[in-house]
């Protein structure tokens, strides 16, 4: 990342505030001109006072001269204050509005990324959060630095230099000499700090992520009494950050010292050269004050430059990660152009291999068919690849080899929003958002009425329990039990009422009675829909029109319950083991007998 690139990337966001920027620059110029008034007035004062001393004191003249000088200085200060206020108001406006714009843009980009983006190690939630926060903060700070800090300083220094040159070229050259020395030291400083800063950013992201993980798993941490273990893990990251920060600051102190020496040498040189000209009677005594003050106008900005430069180089580092994140077109969902008005809902996987971004191959040459209007079940042990197959059918990931088809066309050719609108998902982890039960159910169809939300809850066997809660549907959904949260997800599905249902363990965390109620409700809406169900509940499997048995990512059997059971193998083992777990013979004796 370099300055030119940064400005080019920032420009689309800055462009909206062109008017404010031009005004800010105008104020900058006025402010810089005003800053030269004091040295000039001071020179004039010294020379005038010297002139007055040569004659007998005339009180009226003294009052007139001093009065007008005070009036000029006060007016200048007042004007400078107004200009500064204007600049600050404008800069805040640009800065905070731009931060909001950048944030909006980042959210819209990231939300549209393919799931594989979030599966990357460097994009874990905590790390992303830090990158967004730090990125936006340092970028907007840069814009502020550029228009509120650097621009006035540079303008101020430039006007002061012009005045010095105007007075005397020799003094001008001496005053200018210090600038390249200063710039050289600053550049060296930045180059040395670049790598340290990158490391700091990485450790900061890891720290944020580790903290996020710790807080998220606090129950597990406590139940296994792993507080001190976690504390040590945090300590290691903290210590590493600490050392890097100290090294970073220490390097800065050395370089700041060097820059301070360069500045002092500059002042001394200007002082000596001016005194030389004064003693040669080529300048008035007032020139000493004028030159020292003007040189101060040159060196003060330069002195502040390192802070701005520091923040700026920091911004460059963060900008790199930030723009990489928001400009990553390879993760953008390519929305296909196919928008059929009707389809049969015939989903299939054809010879699909699928490897997760971390290299784990979850599916090997899998071919399966979801017949329209029929229920298909996936059976297999944990880790067999059932959820992965479902993720591919839902379009969350793309297959590594082979194809995912809908009505014979690649799924990727369809408009993904249209497909998602028509597919209802209940996943193993049914995420419940921070918000009320009503809001969470309504997520299924945002325009649904309250009555429709209640009806969906009723179908998901949730309504009765919600009624018992003091705040009813306004209860915070995250305060509910796992099973209740799962029913919210199912209610969401009922509300959406899509023609295709992909269900991953829909009744996994429910008690037997609720599971049966949900099964009945699902059975009711399954009619004439394309359904894929993954379940360990054999009653839901047995009823399926077609069953696929998966083992270690491969399809090892396919057929109906009866045919698969007859042919033995894994399916038979699973059913038998289920029967034994249920203690069928005893159950039959008590229930039927
Ligand atoms: P099932 O649903 O049958 O229990 P999955 O489809 O969840 O199995 O997992 C199949 C294999 O893929 C497992 O070995 C699992 O560890 C791996 N896997 C699942 N999700 C991911 C992921 N996000 N990243 C990497 N590997 C994964």
From TrEMBL:
GO cellular component, one term: plasma membrane
Keyword flag Nucleotide-binding: yes
GO molecular-function term, one example from the UniProt record: ABC-type oligopeptide transporter activity
Domain ABC transmembrane type-1 residue range list: 22-314
Keywords noted in UniProt: ATP-binding, Cell membrane, Membrane, Nucleotide-binding, Transmembrane, Transmembrane helix, Transport
Membrane-spanning residues: 21-42, 62-85, 146-165, 171-187, 261-279
SUPFAM superfamilies documented for this protein: ABC transporter transmembrane region, P-loop containing nucleoside triphosphate hydrolases
Subcellular location per the Swiss-Prot or TrEMBL entry: Cell membrane
Membrane topology value: Multi-pass membrane protein
Superkingdom per UniProt: Bacteria
A Pfam family per the record: ABC_membrane
Main subcellular location of this protein, as a coarse class: membrane
Cross-referenced SMART domains: AAA
ABC transporter domain mapped to chain residues: 347-577
Protein name, entry field: ATP-binding cassette domain-containing protein
Source taxonomy: Bacteria, Pseudomonadati, Bacteroidota, Cytophagia, Cytophagales
């Amino acid at each position: 990342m370099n300055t030119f690139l940064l400005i080019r990337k920032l420009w689309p966001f800055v462009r909206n505030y062109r008017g404010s920027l031009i005004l800010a620059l105008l104020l900058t110029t006025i402010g810089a001109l005003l800053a030269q008034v004091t040295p000039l007035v001071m020179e004039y004062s010294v020379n005038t006072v010297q002139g007055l001393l040569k004659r007998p004191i005339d009180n009226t003249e003294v009052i007139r001269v001093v009065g007008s000088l005070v009036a000029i200085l006060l007016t200048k200060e007042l004007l400078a204050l107004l200009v500064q206020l204007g600049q600050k108001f404008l800069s805040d406006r640009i800065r905070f509005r731009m931060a909001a714009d950048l944030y909006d843009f980042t959210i819209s980009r990231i939300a549209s990324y393919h799931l594989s983006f979030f599966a990357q190690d460097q994009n874990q939630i905590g790390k992303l959060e830090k990158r967004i926060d730090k990125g936006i903060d340092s970028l907007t700070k840069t814009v502020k630095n550029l228009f509120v800090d650097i621009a006035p300083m540079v303008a101020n220094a430039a006007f002061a230099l012009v005045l010095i040159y105007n007075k005397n070229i020799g003094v001008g050259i001496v005053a200018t000499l210090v600038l390249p020395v200063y710039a050289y030291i600053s550049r060296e400083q930045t180059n040395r700090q670049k790598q340290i800063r990158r490391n700091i950013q990485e450790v900061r992201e890891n720290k944020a992520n580790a903290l996020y993980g710790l807080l998220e798993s606090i129950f597990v941490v406590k139940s296994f009494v792993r507080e001190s273990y976690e504390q040590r893990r945090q300590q290691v990251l903290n210590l590493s950050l600490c050392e890097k920060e100290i090294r970073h600051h220490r390097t800065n102190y050395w370089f700041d010292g060097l820059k301070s020496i360069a500045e002092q040498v500059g002042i001394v040189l200007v002082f000596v050269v001016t005194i030389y000209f004064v003693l040669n009677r080529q300048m008035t005594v007032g020139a000493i004050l004028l030159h020292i003050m003007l040189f101060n106008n040159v060196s003060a900005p330069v002195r502040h430059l390192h802070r701005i430069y520091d923040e700026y180089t920091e911004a460059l580092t963060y900008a790199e990660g930030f723009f990489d994140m928001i400009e990553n077109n390879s993760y953008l969902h390519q929305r296909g152009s196919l928008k059929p008005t009707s389809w049969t809902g015939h989903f299939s996987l054809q010879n699909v291999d699928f490897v997760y971004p971390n290299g784990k191959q979850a599916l090997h040459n899998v071919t399966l068919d979801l017949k329209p209007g029929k229920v298909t079940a996936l059976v297999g042990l944990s880790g067999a690849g059932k959820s992965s197959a479902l993720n591919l059918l839902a379009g969350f990931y793309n297959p590594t080899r082979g194809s995912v088809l809908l009505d014979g066309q690649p799924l990727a050719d369809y408009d993904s929003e249209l497909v998602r609108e028509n597919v209802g998902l209940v996943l193993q982890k049914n995420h419940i958002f921070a918000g009320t039960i009503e809001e969470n159910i309504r997520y299924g169809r945002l325009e649904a009425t309250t009555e429709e939300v209640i009806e969906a809850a009723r179908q998901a066997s949730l309504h009765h329990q919600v009624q018992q809660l003091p705040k009813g549907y306004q209860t915070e959904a995250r305060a509910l039990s796992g099973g209740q949260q799962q029913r919210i997800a199912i209610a969401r599905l009922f509300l959406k009422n899509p023609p295709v249902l992909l269900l991953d363990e829909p009744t996994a965390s429910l008690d037997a009675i609720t599971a049966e109620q949900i099964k009945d409700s699902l059975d009711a809406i399954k009619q004439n829909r394309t359904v894929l169900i993954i379940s360990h509940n054999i009653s839901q499997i047995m009823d399926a029109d077609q069953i696929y048995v998966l083992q270690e990512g491969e399809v090892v059997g396919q057929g109906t319950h009866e045919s698969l059971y007859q042919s033995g193998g894994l399916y038979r083992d699973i059913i038998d083991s289920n029967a034994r777990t249920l203690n069928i013979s005893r159950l039959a004796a008590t229930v039927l007998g």
